[in-house]
Amino acid sequence: MMESTPAEPPHPAEDVTHHVGYLLKRAQAALRGAMDKVLREHGLTVPQYATLELLALRPGMSNADLARATFVTRQSGNVVLRGLQEAGLITRPATADHGRARPAHLTEEGHARLATVQAAVYAVEQRMVEAVPPHRMPALLADLDRIAAALEE
Fold it and tell me: How many Å apart are CA 81 and CA 90, to the nearest integer?
């Protein structure tokens, strides 16, 4: 039986808890937990909130586009849209004009709920931003974007 030599990490690190991937996941988990907490107080989930934000920005997005943009499957995206529709926060036509896409739009109540919850969500993001020196924020954002792009190739 051959003994295998442990692989060297791609950068100096004491252990796995200091690897880039581990630290990104830790930050993501902390963000998700903080978002879940504030959104629960408003009766929303993270995917529902993200969907409301995106529809405010780009009305008429399809389920497939929203699912991609909110990092959920198309099936999960459809569940999110159904829940938002049942809550009166979005509208979608009963049938598609062409193809299978049924464009979604915020209702007045959807716009109002989004406006109410945004302050709480933005406060979470403010806590993150305040942890980074202002002069380093542009580099951090660029680095995160490059990391994502490198893994999406």
Answer: 8
* Most confidently modeled range among 19-23, 63-67, 86-90: 86-90
Find out whether 49 and 80 touch, Cβ atoms under 8 Å: no
Give the per-residue pLDDT at 111: 97
Both tokens assigned to 118? 């945004």
Confidence (pLDDT) at 42: 94
Reference 67, options 47, 39, 89; nearest CA is: 47
In the predicted model, what is the mean pLDDT of the chain? 91
DSSP element (H, E) containing 144 = helix 137-152
The residue ranges of DSSP E strands in the chain, in sequence order, are: 90-91, 105-106
User: Taking the CA atoms of the chain, what radius of gyration do you get in angstroms?
Assistant: 20
Torsion of CA 30, 138, 55, 80, to 10 degrees: -20
Query: Is residue 61 within 8 Å of residue 103, measured between CB atoms?
Result: yes
Residue 130's contacts (CB-CB under 8 Å, 6 or more residues apart) are none
pLDDT band at 125, cuts 50/70/90? very high
Q: Which amino acid is at 33?
A: G
